[in-house]
Design goal:
binds S-adenosyl-L-homocysteine, Transcription Regulator spoIIAA, alpha/beta, binds FE3-S4 cluster, five-stranded mixed beta barrel, single chain, about 20% strand, about 35% helix, 19 strands, Rossmann fold, globular
Length: about 450
């Protein structure tokens, strides 16, 4: 048995890719380790969406030089978006690097690793594929990791948001076949998974480039029919493509969790225009109102960019206003950074200085903290269904789980509760999480019955 260590940067899409890397390397007898010093194969799975991603990768690789010096035969590889972006430059600039694999090249890995091991052959594979087969694993997933599983339904993006590098490093939109998605979810459910997170850069476009394929709302409909699956989530949706059918799905599908991540990026129309986001503030707010009309208890989260080129103080104020108006449950806020290839980097000077970006980011986060805390305090005394994910990261000795609205809940409980649903009463709140007491836990035999395997 050989050992594989993977360091993952970035989004859920990358986390899922790392799971797939581990999965394909199993065929070569590699198993995962979290101790880099004992690994025979070390991979960096990279993200290039923001900041100085390339520099971070080069310096992380610099630190890995000594791994090779200490242990002969260690193989070092870089995958993901920075690999896609930098390609053979990485091999040229980092002499101790053996492999560079792009975002669509995971199935190639066993062959690439074999060639390094047997012939010391360094290689780069970063081509884009024409069909979705590269997203399918040769063998079905053999092990699930807890009650919640990520399922990639599509990759790539055909949008042209001017700040975003994703279309250049993840390629054009490609959707997996609905048949194989459903098959995968059925198999996960048989193995005990009760919550799936459907992943894609813009899931609302699911199927659009595959003639005859289901639309995203139709796919949700089918997944909603899978017995014993309890929760469905998805990310991410572009507001422009949030169709009436998708909004209605929130009213109709009982397994679809009442939570939506709908990145707004900015509250100012002029900035949205420069970002090429193709919707305006009022249109976005109308969609939010429609969603709330369909599902009054829906939780909303969003992404915000501050300091986009040319963002004036007034325009920034409009972003603060939209946060107040929508009252999101959670936000992810970033300072704008110019990315290679993107229209914004070519057309605009990065003219909001870093001190101003920093100040705006702090203002946004301060405001959201207040809003989130207020929302969470309203939950005091409420009874919530929580799917228990594992030990709490921030509260020692406690467990953590999530409500259907994606709120993190910490509570005292037994390890045997992990993977199960518990009913809790909320007794405390902070901006980012709730504190609760367990009222009752679901009976295991009931769960087995409902899965039809008792
Ligand atoms: N649709 C994608 C978006 C990927 S990028 C998804 O699946 O989430 C995630 C977020 O990073 C974006 O919504 C945006 O808020 C932020 N982002 C992207 N490019 C950026 C840039 N150049 N500078 C700052 N933030 C950026
Ligand atoms: Fe990026 Fe816009 Fe697509 S943020 S991933 S180009 S929807």
């Amino acid at each position: 048995m050989k050992r594989l260590y993977i360091q993952t940067y970035g989004c859920q899409m990358n986390e899922r890719d790392s799971e797939r890397i581990a999965h394909v390397m199993k065929s070569m007898d590699y198993c995962l380790t979290d101790r880099i010093e004992e690994a025979d194969l070390v991979f960096l799975n990279t993200c290039s969406v923001r900041d100085k991603a390339e520099q971070k990768v080069y310096s992380a690789l610099g630190r890995w030089r000594e791994l090779k010096q200490k242990r002969e035969g260690v193989v070092v590889g870089v995958g993901g978006c920075v690999a896609q972006q930098e390609g053979s430059d990485l091999l040229r600039r980092v002499p101790h690097l053996d492999l560079v694999f792009g975002t669509q090249s995971i199935p190639e890995l066993p062959r690439m690793v074999k060639e390094v091991e047997s012939q010391k052959k360094r290689s780069v594979v970063i081509g884009f594929q024409r069909d979705a087969s590269y997203m399918e694993d040769v063998e079905p997933r053999v092990e699930v990791n807890g009650p919640k599983a990520m399922v990639t339904i599509m990759q790539g993006c055909n949008k042209v948001c001017s700040f975003c590098i994703v279309p250049y490093v993840r390629g054009r939109e490609i959707s997996r076949s609905s048949e194989s998605i459903i098959q995968e979810i059925r198999s996960l459910v048989r193995q005990g998974v009760t919550e799936v997170v459907l992943l894609g850069q813009n899931v609302n476009s699911y199927g659009k480039t595959s003639p005859g394929e289901l639309t995203f709302p139709q796919l949700l409909d089918k997944i909603n029919d899978i017995e014993a699956l309890r929760r469905i989530r998805f990310m991410t949706s572009h507001p422009q493509d949030l169709s009436v059918q998708l909004v209605e799905a929130f009213a109709k599908l009982e397994r679809l969790c009442e939570h939506l991540h709908l990145p707004v990026q900015s509250g100012a129309d002029a900035v949205l225009e420069r970002m090429r986001r193709n919707y305006r503030r009022e249109e976005y707010l109308r969609k939010i109102a429609r969603l709330r009309a369909c599902r009054p208890d829906i939780a909303l989260s969003t992404d915000i960019i501050v300091g986009f080129p040319g963002e004036t103080e007034e325009e920034f104020e409009q972003t603060l206003e939209i946060l107040q108006e929508v009252e999101y449950d959670e936000i992810f806020a970033f300072k704008y950074s110019p990315r290679p290839h993107t229209a914004a980097a070519k057309l605009y000077r990065d003219d909001v200085c870093d001190a101003v970006k920093k100040e705006r980011l702090e203002q946004v986060l301060r405001l959201q903290n207040e809003l989130s805390l207020r929302k969470n305090l309203q939950k005091l005394g409420a009874v919530e269904e929580v799917l228990v994910e594992g030990p709490s990261r921030h509260r020692k000795g406690q467990l953590m789980g999530r409500t259907r609205t994606n709120r993190i809940v910490n509570f005292l409980g037994e390890d045997s509760m992990i993977g199960r649903f518990v009913s809790v009463a909320v007794v405390g709140a902070s901006p980012n999480s709730l504190i609760a007491e367990v009222l009752s836990e679901e009976n295991v035999s009931e769960m087995i019955d409902s899965r039809g395997i008792a």
